[in-house]
Amino acid sequence: MRPEPGRRNTTRSGSHSANTRNSRRPQPSRRRVRRRPNEVAKRRRKRKFFDALGRFIPVFLAIAAIVAIVAIFYGNKILDRYRYSGKHADLKEYYGVFYDYQVAMVINNAKVEEKGVYYKNSYYISHEDVKKYFTNHFYINLDEQLCLYTTQDEIIKADINQTGNYCYYKGDEKRDLDCAPVITNDGKTYFSFNYLSLFTEFDINKYDDPKRMVIYTEDTHLNKATINKDTQIRYRGGVKSDILKDVKEGDTVYILEEMEDWAKVMTRDGIIGYVEIKRYDKSGSDNIVIDKCEIPLEYTSITSDSKINMAFHQLFDINASDFSDVPTDAGINVVAPTVFRITDNEGTIKNTVNANYVANAHNAGVKIWGVWTDVDNEVDLSEILHKYSLRQQFIGNMISMTKEAGLDGINLDFEKIPSDSGSDWAEFLRELSVATHKEGIVLSVDNYAPTASTIHYNRGVQGNVCDYVIVMGYDEHWASGGVAGSVASIGFVENGITNTIDSGVPAEKIINAVPFYTRVWKTKDATVTADTMGMASTAAWCEEYGVELNWNDETCQKYGEKEMNGTLYQVWLEDAESLEAKLSVMDAHGCAGVAEWKLGFDTREAWDVIGEYLSR
User: Fold this and answer.
1) What angle do CA 203, 208, 210 make, to 5 degrees?
2) For the whole model, what pTM was predicted?
């Protein structure tokens, strides 16, 4: 029902009354505005973007935090990689010295493993290291407590483990020292550097903390550099390597090797390490000049102006005065008769020299080198060689017998030297050479072709002290060896010469001995035996039994074989043609001459070939 006009609605409902009042107020237009579809889509996309952004921000912040943490961690790692280490190395560990008596050594710009010894305010070095870095000429005999150093003219002696009144003897002259020259410690022998300096040339400087020696054994040119900024010498090339030494601007180092960014250097006090190249400027060079020692080791030899042609003459009888076996027209200028035989371990000598033989040789213009041999008797010379007094007694006998017989030289044919007597043998030769040179007697030594089993014959020492070294270029295959083969193939001969040269013997001192004999080998039921024949006898045997001989390029010999009555006979023939091949090799190496084993096995053709060799 509609209210009457002019009457007030008295309904108590508040909401109704309010609605009534509001309904009386002017109302805005409610006309709907129609929006374009593009604007709606844009608004929706914008709302979605901000909604998504709101959801992503926490994730982004989390990722950013992780990235920051990782960057800090690895950044420190990278920075740490290039950050210079400040850790210093332990120099005792660097040098490997762990006891107060040990002394490190830097030799010729290299830190070596070997250690010296500090004893009673003096510095010492082991005998093994003396031989390795300085000289192998010292002889030590701990049984006699004796150290010897033998020059061309005299024997220098020093007692080992002297406790006072330190001295040595140069010949018969006593000379004082300020320390014990030679000592022993823990089974090793050590030389005082003060004593060593008398005999060998070197430069030495000594430093402490830890004790060390910087040694040069030869004149040395050092490239010098000056540090341009305070820096460090490190154990290896790299900023993380431990520091060996801090160096200041202006300090001097010596450049040993340059790499891309680092250089291997050495300080004056013997620290070898690495420094950055940018931290130094090259500044010229220093030269280490070694002073000459007081007792130099120099040898002169008694030599011939012409090639030696030495014929071995095997003699047994003291009545062998006939010189007719020696062809005087064969160019022989030395004959070596086997006239001195060692008969027992005490060095008893059987002397079969005949005065008429000597006179006949000298009348023919031929020198005589008497052969001293241990071949014909079962003897062991190790005791004689080992003791100084016995060596001197034996040498005295050799000299007196040689002089009494009027011989010109001594030829040693000692083929039974024990392998553990090598150093004794070498010292015997040194001491013998002193005596022979004083008397003007030529000293020569016979040697096997070098092998590992004969290295103890010390051919290098022979090359120093002896006038001539004979290579017995034969017996490639022994008669009792059980294997058939050449007595002296060309390869065997050449190796004998070259290996002797490589052992330290000058070619101009080498006499190569050739065989005048051949072995006729017989093999039956796997048993090998041989008959030894001279050149003429072998050729006649081959002709008699119809053995065809053909030249073999590999051995440079004629070879023949024949089976007779179930036995295989083989021959590698020695004749003038095979001899010519050997002489050509000797010429090529500049040898001092030729020797022949032995007279009585020779032929005229062989001497003709040798004559041509001598005239070249």
Assistant:
1) 110
2) 0.83
